[in-house]
Amino acid sequence: MPRNPILSASRIRAAALHIIDRDGLDGLSMRKLASELGVQAASLYGHVSTKDDLLHEVAAEILEKVDVSGFEGGDWCSGLRSAARSYRAALAQHPNIVPFLAYGPAHREASLRRLDVVHGGLVAGGWSRREATMIAAGLMYLVFGAALSSFSSGFSEDQALYRDRYPNLDKAHLLPGVAQELDHDSFELTLDAFVTGLVARAPG
């Protein structure tokens, strides 16, 4: 057995993501990561240059689960739906990294490759390049808005807080108990409205 644990890029990424899931994005440091892996911090730099580079690598691994294959079949509606659902599912598994991903795709190869497929699929479907950019942006707004927090999270389960002062919210205290169902159904409603609205405006 080697005295020091054997490091690999995949093991470093997995440990970093574990820390982010457990302690939040600000909880990740190279020193803490090294401790988690049982090595000295200097050992990490043979595999990753900076914490920011590591975050991009972790993000790329998460984004591998985003399915943009629907665009390659020529059906941009199906492509939008499958991309949105798989993107939301990938982010839901690791919500603490969402703020980092929300900065945009400009420095991430994995994000740019998927965006290229989305953009190309929309243009092939008859949309102008400007319109394709707007639709892709709209898709990101929808996905990240759904991933950042649960709509129900801000509501109290105390009925008295709403019953008298807000008569139209007299059932608001029930929302935390159905948070998962509400978030899913609300996302699907919004996604359907988004795609249906685009179909009504589609060129040709």
Automatic annotation (TrEMBL):
UniProt xrefs under Gene3D superfamilies: Tetracycline Repressor, domain 2
GO molecular function: DNA-binding transcription factor activity; transcription cis-regulatory region binding
Keyword DNA-binding listed: yes
Superkingdom of the source species: Bacteria
SUPFAM superfamilies: Homeodomain-like, Tetracyclin repressor-like, C-terminal domain
Gene Ontology biological-process entries: negative regulation of DNA-templated transcription; response to antibiotic
InterPro entries: DNA-bd_HTH_TetR-type_CS, Homeodomain-like_sf, HTH-type_TetR-like_transc_reg, HTH_TetR, Repressor_TetR_C, Tet_transcr_reg_TetR, Tet_transcr_reg_TetR-rel_C_sf
One Pfam family cited in the UniProt record for this chain: TetR_N
DNA-binding region residue numbers: 29-48
TM helices/strands, residue ranges: none
Record keywords: DNA-binding, Repressor, Transcription, Transcription regulation
Residues of the HTH tetR-type domain: 6-66
Keyword Transcription in record: yes
PANTHER family in UniProt: HTH-TYPE TRANSCRIPTIONAL REGULATOR RUTR, TRANSCRIPTIONAL REGULATORY PROTEIN
Protein name: TetR family transcriptional regulator
Organism of provenance: Saccharothrix syringae
